[in-house]
Amino acid sequence: MSDTAYRMTAETGGATSSAGAGDFFALLKPRVMSLVVFTGLVGILIAPGHIHPVLAAVAVLCIAVGSGAAGAINMWYDRDIDAVMARTRHRPIPAGRVAPGDALGFGVVLSVASVTLMGLMVDYVAGALLALAILFYVFVYTMGLKRRTPQNIVIGGAAGAFPPMIGWAAVTGGVSLESLALFALIFFWTPPHFWALALYRCGDYAKAGVPMLPVVAGRAATTRQMLAYTLLLLPVALAPTLLGFAGWIYGGASLVLSLGFVAAAAIVMRAADDGPARRMFGYSIFYLATLFALLVADRVPGLAG
After folding, report:
1. What is the pTM of this model?
2. Is 181 inside any structural domain?
3. Mind listing the pLDDT tens digit for each residue in 65-117?
4. Alpha helices (H) in the chain, listed in sequence order
5. Domain C-terminal end among 133, 151, 175
């Protein structure tokens, strides 16, 4: 299908008769959701105190649904640019399988349901944080920053840093320095993670008119900022150990993994092709998932340092 046809399909919504459960599930951005759910679960598992397993499961479900709902609204709003980007043109809305209005209604209903359920069944602070994360992603990042500034992902990335705080609040009923440290870890991880993707998808973003940093500032400036953020991550990743809610097994591993992230950024700076950026993007996902897994493993009796 041509770019013009994709644009027309995105604007009109295309045919809705072909929409199936899989198409609506795709609106939830399941790959993004999986990491969000995992970090939220870790917040629940390592928070001090106790939560009934059923309520913990409800909290995880609400985080998953809330994340997916925000993703669906994001796809509704971005349907015009999704239609011209190779990475996103086959999503349900630009492909014409789901009408824009259906996607918006789906996202809004799930947003309200997830926040309400979290607030009523688990904890009102956790519910408020979930609402803040959804609103921040939709209004601040998607509608406010993404198409206006190359620093979009720096500020907007805060939305993805809320899940461990939400999980922590589900157990403790509040926000603490420890949960803020988990927030900071994801917040500072997001720019180098996303800019690695933007480097090898730069043409896509330029074609869609999205001012990602590589499009606006160029490759050299982007790779310098990526290196700066990986260096900032060194102390941030160590914060759980320095604050005393993780042991030195986690601390030592986080230092090694963070140095690996710095090395990956340095390699990208010197690279003449997109291969190192692709590998750095993959490593960044491994990096964050491993750090959060280590936070849980560090709590296992006999392993804590």
Report:
1. 0.90
2. no
3. 999 999 999 999 999 999 999 889 999 999 999 999 999 999 999 999 999 99
4. 3-12, 21-27, 30-46, 53-77, 79-82, 100-117, 124-135, 152-156, 163-172, 177-200, 202-208, 213-217, 219-242, 248-270, 275-297
5. 175
